[in-house]
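PROTEIN–LIGAND DATA SHEET

This sheet pairs a single protein chain with one bound small molecule, S-adenosylmethionine, given as SMILES. Inputs appear in the order they were entered. The predicted three-dimensional arrangement of chain and ligand is reported afterwards as a token string under its own label.
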Amino acid sequence: MNEIGDAFSQNEDLIPLSGREFTYITALVYDRFGIHLPEQKKVLVSGRLSKRLRRLGCKNFSDYIRLLENDSTGAEISEMINLLTTNHSFFFREGEHFDFLANTVLSDLSGAFARGGPYPLRIWSAGCASGEEVYSVAMLLHDRYAGKPGAPDIGLLATDISLTALRTAREGIYAAQKFNEMPSRFRQRYLGATEEREYAVAEEIKAMVLFKRLNLMAESYPMKGQFDVVFCRNVMIYFNQESRNRVVSTLYRYVKPGGYLFIGHSESLPREWNPFDYVKPAIYRKGVEPTKSQGVRR
Ligand SMILES: C[S@@+](CC[C@H](N)C(=O)[O-])C[C@H]1O[C@@H](n2cnc3c(N)ncnc32)[C@H](O)[C@@H]1O
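PREDICTION REPORTED AS:
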């Protein structure tokens, strides 16, 4: 996605943003959400926020900052982060992860539980944007298990900081190009046409997922229990090292022993501070005996 171009096309008349104002906004975004906005993002920030300022009747960024300072409910900070996050995603993005899920994770689990009743299978899309990632997982699981004997008891959670992205996710309607990487049998089975060049995800797939707002920078998360797989892909690219370290350490607590963390293929977790074991590019695993837990830092 061309963020700068995007900012310009949406906002022809940018409201000037001074160095001091930019520093205030970036510090706030970093403190609250871990997102690092370097100097090069100044045009993007003023581009994405100018329209909002006009809507609120703010003449300049100083007015807007005053409003943020008095935002005791957090509502405006939430509106601001909706505008500043990049929610780009598409179905079956980085397809190797879905192959690994199907061929290794699910096969291993069904082997381990071969003699038991329905076993739990919990998967979390952390930083789910508008839902394409978790719906891809849901389709894969539905295709594999629906109506079959011995199917696991599936729980799918998807979280994001952006309420705008979550609204789109819950709606489940997407432009055609979001499905370019999707296997054709899934298209036939799980998509319905709405308007021209838009498709709706089948209700049975939507019903499999629980969407919630969650800030990954929180000290702890409100979920009960741990997950077999956490997808946290293309989220930490917006974080600096300190935020990444913090989020990975927190996520670690929510992964079952032997469970997996998938990150984006353009991301990596340095060995020195990473409590997970490396499996292959962009795939990490929590040891069954968490011997590396001393590596967990906060
Ligand atoms: C580029 S999207 C990635 C979507 C999907 N995981 C994928 O790989 O296609 C990054 C998402 O991370 C979310 N995000 C950024 N910082 C976050 C935070 N502190 N807590 C929760 N979500 C965050 C953004 O709102 C955005 O929707």
